[in-house]
Design goal:
The protein is α+β, with helices and mostly antiparallel strands and 163 residues long. The protein contains 8 helices and 6 strands; from the N terminus they run βααβαββαβαβααα. The longest helix is centred in the C-terminal third of the chain and has 13 residues. It is globular and about 50 Å long.
């Protein structure tokens, strides 16, 4: 099954950035260095699972006008199943990390992803994310209901609770 990474900022992938700059913008660890274990999700690539995974992945932010899923399947690199830390079982279960040896390996991976061009880049519109979340809340999905009621819930999610 293909692997997908959600861009931190879709525009980074549309600009003609040097690979090193793209690494700094999109593949930076929590500590500021290169991320040698980039997160991906193992998904079938159909619209439904991609939308669900992104909505759950990004429920704690204000969704951008257009998010971007990047097909990130890799050859000759180890991929490890790692439980995600989010409140949603689906994305926790689908979360993986690509295990890279060093910064040169990371830059090679980024080069491979850039070389694909627009192929394998799937836009996810904000209105689809909101519609998905609204439907889940209206259907009393326990995970979405809890996320919308959380003390740190974003305003867009709180608004969906109101009739």
């Amino acid at each position: 099954m293909p692997l997908f990474r959600f861009a931190r900022r879709g525009a980074n992938w549309e600009e003609d950035l040097p690979i090193e700059e793209l690494q700094k913008r999109e593949f930076k660890s929590k500590h500021g260095g290169p991320d040698l274990r980039p997160s991906v999700y193992e998904l079938d690539g159909q619209t439904g699972p991609l939308l669900r995974a992104y909505a759950e992945h990004a429920h704690h932010i204000d969704p951008p006008t257009r998010a971007l899923a990047i097909e990130s399947s890799v050859k000759d690199r180890a991929v490890q199943t790692t439980p995600g830390k989010l409140a949603f079982a689906f994305v926790r279960d689908q979360h993986r990390e690509i295990l890279l040896n060093d910064e040169a390996d990371l830059l090679a991976l980024i080069s491979e992803l850039v070389a694909k061009g627009g192929e394998g880049r799937i836009p996810i519109p904000k209105q689809d994310v909101i519609a998905y979340a609204r439907q889940r809340i209206e259907e009393h999905d326990p995970e979405w209901t809890a996320a919308a009621a959380a003390p740190d819930a974003r305003s867009w999610l709180i608004k969906l609770r109101k009739p």
